[in-house]
Design a protein that fits this description.
The complex is a heterodimer. Chain A has helices at 6-23, 37-49, 67-70, 101-113; strands spanning 30-34, 56-58, 89-97, 118-126, 138-142, 151-154, 160-163. By secondary structure, chain A is an alpha/beta fold. In chain A, a hairpin with a 5-residue loop joins β6 (151-154) and β7. Chain A contains 4 helices and 7 strands. The model of chain A has no long low-confidence stretch (mean pLDDT 92). The longest helix of chain B has 22 residues, at 297-318. Chain B has 13 helices and 9 strands. In chain B, α2 packs across α6 (149-163), α2 packs across α13 (297-318) and α3 crosses α13. Helix content of chain B is 39%, strand content 14%. Chain B has 2 domains: 4-147 and 304-318, 3-Layer(aba) Sandwich (Rossmann fold); 149-301, Aspartate/ornithine carbamoyltransferase (Rossmann fold), CATH 3.40.50. Classes of the chains: A alpha/beta, B alpha/beta. The A-B interface holds A 59, 61-64, 66-72, 74-79, 94-99, 101-102, 108, 112-114, 127, 131, 150, 164 and B 14, 31, 34-35, 37-38, 41-42, 45-47, 49-52, 313-314, 316-318, 320, 322-323, 326-329.
Chain lengths: 164, 329
């Protein structure tokens, strides 16, 4: 299977996100990447967007709904968010969206930090297999994988996509 | 008694009970500290709870009195979103016989998921861990003279956060080592985590005879023992020991082993002073030191909650068989 050119779709995604931010009038947006891949993607998008805040990171390890099945991630890095996300326009960024459970966990965690004005979801890749009613506002590419196939992003620079 | 590590670890080496620091690997102790570190950050938020143990029931089973340890376990459980039941069964002579097991069976029948146990008998938590139904986690909150592993780990976290690392540090533990479960757990953890030297300082009557086999160096003179130390850990002097003629008097003890500014000056200038609390001002430590700028005694209390959250979360997760699949995105 041919995998998309990650560098190219990251660049395209940055341009689309710039337009979306203007269109929706998202003043002073805060980029929040979900660890680990989402943070890499967010950093790349910020090369183009140049937001006033540094990219924030969200570690959802303590919010997973499969904690009792998978246990804690051996190396929880913790979240790094600004002092307040109250009334901020958040651009939530992840590398791959599948079931939607990570995004559910991420939104739960965000609301424990405060009440954002809005959340816009941006994912580099959508591989389908959704289990929750969550869809990205912007997505770099959609991949139809065979049963049991997964993709893995390595980074941060360069971003490389491989089949797992 | 069986090897504690066959009881407290899963087959693949994860924590499923937390009974003792003895024999645990450096990797596992470090994992506890790393996890606790990330819980410190969640506690600095306006909303301090995380949903990890939502729907789980934790029972604080205290056969011995405690305020600080019990309340920090309670807060830790609450900040993990667990429901908590506090049972104070403070009786001195509860044997390991039927009474204890009856209590446990009753609590198990209430679908409890975790017992935090403090008991005056050494080995009580271990005994309970061997007896409980599978999927119930046991956390040792102090058993007799044997172990107090969460206190030791919060002390390790305190040293790591204030001195950068435990590796290479000289640590002195001062006071009644003989009766101290805290000291035992600390010595094991410090040795495993690479402390350069662990010293124990106190009168001969309060130092165990086998202390050197544990990897600690005994000192009978406070000034010699404190020389060049990075960390000074004071232990609480239990006043009932005086009656057993192990000590001449409080005043005499303070003169020889009480931590004063004058004695602290023998340690490194940036040495930190720790104490598991509650402190006896003027018995083992003078107020000028306890409240001084080298004291990290109150930081220990805050770190205690994070460490207890970490071991509770890790032990609860160790009760489950892991599912071998990629993490869903």
């Amino acid at each position: 299977m041919n995998l998309p050119d990650i560098e190219q779709i990251t660049q395209d995604l940055a341009e689309q996100l710039t337009e979306l931010i203007t269109e929706r009038q998202l003043d002073d947006p805060l980029l929040v990447g979900i660890r680990t891949g989402g943070v890499w993607v967010a950093e790349r998008l910020n090369d183009t967007l140049k937001c006033t805040d540094d990219v924030a990171s969200l570690d959802i390890s303590f919010y997973r709904d499969d904690f009792t099945r998978h246990g804690l991630h051996p190396k929880v890095q913790g979240s790094e968010l600004p002092d307040s996300i109250e009334d901020r326009h958040i651009i939530l960024i992840d590398d791959v969206i599948m079931s939607g459970r990570t995004i559910r966990a991420a939104m739960n965690e965000l609301f424990d930090y405060g009440r954002p004005a809005s959340i816009t979801l941006v994912c580099l890749l959508d591989i389908g297999r959704r289990e929750l009613p969550i869809q990205p506002d912007l997505c770099g590419a959609t991949l139809a994988l065979n049963d049991g196939q997964l993709v893995k992003l390595t980074g941060p620079r360069p971003l490389v996509l491989t089949l797992a | 008694m069986t090897d504690p590590n066959t009881v407290q670890l899963t087959e693949d080496g994860r924590l499923k009970h937390f009974l003792t620091t003895e024999g645990l690997s450096r990797e596992l102790l470090t994992e506890i500290l790393d996890t606790a570190d990330s819980f410190i950050s969640t506690q600095e938020r306006a909303v301090k709870t995380v949903p990890l143990l939502r729907g789980k029931t934790v029972v604080n089973l205290f056969f011995e009195n405690s305020t600080r340890t019990r309340s920090t376990f309670e807060l830790a459980a609450k900040r993990l979103s667990a429901d908590i039941l506090n049972l104070d069964i403070a009786r001195s002579a509860t044997s390991k016989g039927e009474t204890l097991m009856d209590t446990l069976w009753n609590l198990e029948a209430m679908y409890s998921d975790m017992f935090v146990v403090r008991h005056s008998d050494s080995g009580a938590a271990h005994f309970i861990a061997e007896q409980v139904t599978p999927n119930v986690a046991i956390i040792n909150a102090g058993d007799g003279r044997h172990a107090h592993p969460t206190q030791a780990m919060l002390d390790m976290l305190t040293i790591r956060r204030h001195k950068g690392d435990i590796e290479g540090k000289i640590v002195a533990i001062v006071g009644d080592i003989l009766h101290s479960r805290v000291a035992r757990s600390q010595i094991h953890a410090l040795r495993t985590l690479g402390a350069a030297e662990v010293r124990v300082i106190g009168p001969g009557t309060l130092l165990p005879s086998d202390i050197e086999s544990m990897g600690a160096v005994p000192y009978y003179d406070m000034r010699a023992g404190l020389a060049d130390c990075d960390v000074v850990i004071m232990l609480r002097l239990q006043k009932e020991r005086m009656q057993n003629a192990l000590l001449p008097s409080e005043g005499e003890f303070f003169k020889l082993y009480g931590l004063t500014k004058e004695k602290l000056a023998f340690a490194k200038p940036d040495a930190i002073v720790m104490h598991p609390g509650p402190i006896n001002r003027g018995v083992e430590i003078e107020s000028a030191v306890a409240d001084g700028n080298q004291s990290v005694i109150l930081n220990q209390v805050s770190y205690g909650i994070a460490v207890r959250m970490a071991v509770m979360a890790m032990a609860m997760s160790g009760q489950q068989t892991p599912v071998n699949s990629e993490e869903p995105a």
